[in-house]
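task queued by scheduler; priority normal; single chain, no ligands, no partner chains; default sampling; output format set to C-alpha cells
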Amino acid sequence: MCFQGIDLPMLVLAVMILFTSTLDIEGVDKEKIEPVHLNYVLLLQRYLKYKYPREANKRLGDILMLHHPTRELFELHSMRLPI
C-alpha cells in the first residue's frame, strides 16, 4: 500500500470513514451511522475521480482497506500490559 501524494481532503475523508465504520462494533445504532459512513465513502470517491481520474479506484480501495490494520493496531494496544 503506497500513500504518496495524500492531500488534506483525502486524509480528512479517510479519517471520517474510519470514525464512522461500524464493523466489529457492538451496541451502536448501525441504521443511523451507516448512511453517514456511505456518504463519506461516496464523497471520497467523487473527489478521487475528480482529482486522480486514472487511479481513483485503486486509491479508494487502499483507503477503504485501512480499516483492517487500524483495527489490528487497536486490538494489540488494548491487549498490552499496563505500565
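post-processing summary
- The mean pLDDT is 85.
- Residues 8 and 14 are 10 Å apart (CA to CA).
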